[in-house]
Amino acid sequence: MSNVFSFVGTVGNDAQVRYTAAGLAVLNVNVANNIGFGDKQQTLWVRVAVFGKRAEGRLVEYLKKGQAVFVSGELTQSQYQGQDGTLKTALELTAQVLELVGGRKDSPAAAPAPVATADYDDDIPF
């Protein structure tokens, strides 16, 4: 790879699998990554593509809107003309790694696990 871009984001729409004319499977999904904080926060949208056997697997069943994912791969940038005539930029990532992180927001399994606490001896002098 000539460059590597890694981030954790949220799936913005359900993933789709299509096939090229040569029969290669391609899984596409848009992933949102929030950058900045407060009133300066922005959402960075990245179109993610997974090719080959991994795209043909069951991953598409889990990449639903709201799912948190870790993505890493080669990032490219393309430009296109928007409907309003302005020049727009799109980020596209060919994923080498795409892993699920936690549960979906609307899933009961997404609730954080209770944190185990240890009993500490209060006689510790520091």
In short:
By secondary structure, the protein is mainly beta. It has 2 helices and 6 strands, in the order E-E-E-E-H-H-E-E.
- Main β-sheet description: 5 strands, mixed, barrel
Q: Total number of helical segments?
A: 2
* Radius of gyration, CA atoms, in whole angstroms: 19 Å
CATH-level-2 architecture: Beta Barrel
What pattern of helices and strands is seen along the backbone?
Answer: EEEEHHEE
| Low-pLDDT stretches | 108-120
Strand order within the widest beta sheet: 1-3-4-6-5
Per DSSP E runs of 2 or more residues, the count of β-strands stands at 6
Query: At the third CATH level, what is the topology name?
Result: OB fold (Dihydrolipoamide Acetyltransferase, E2P)
Helix content: under 10%
Amino- and carboxy-terminal Cα gap: 50 Å
What is the strand content?
over 45%
| SS content category | mainly beta
Overall mean confidence score, pLDDT? 84
Domain module count: 1
CATH class, please?
Mainly Beta
CATH superfamily caption: Nucleic acid-binding proteins
Give the overall shape, derived from the CA principal axes: globular
InterPro entries: NA-bd_OB-fold, Primosome_PriB/ssb, ssDNA-bd
Biased composition (Low complexity): 108-118
GO molecular function: single-stranded DNA binding
Protein name: Single-stranded DNA-binding protein
Helix and strand layout, with pairings?
Elements: E1 5-11, E2 16-19, E3 25-35, E4 42-51, H1 53-56, H2 59-62, E5 68-81, E6 87-100
Parallel strand pairs: 4-6
Antiparallel strand pairs: 1-3, 1-5, 2-3, 3-4, 5-6
Structure description:
This protein is mainly β and 126 residues long. The chain has a single domain, classed as OB fold (Dihydrolipoamide Acetyltransferase, E2P). 6% of the residues lie in helices and 48% in strands. It contains 2 helices and 6 strands. The protein has a 5-stranded mixed beta barrel. Strand 3 and strand 4 form a beta hairpin. The longest helix is centred in the middle third of the chain and has 4 residues. The termini are far apart.
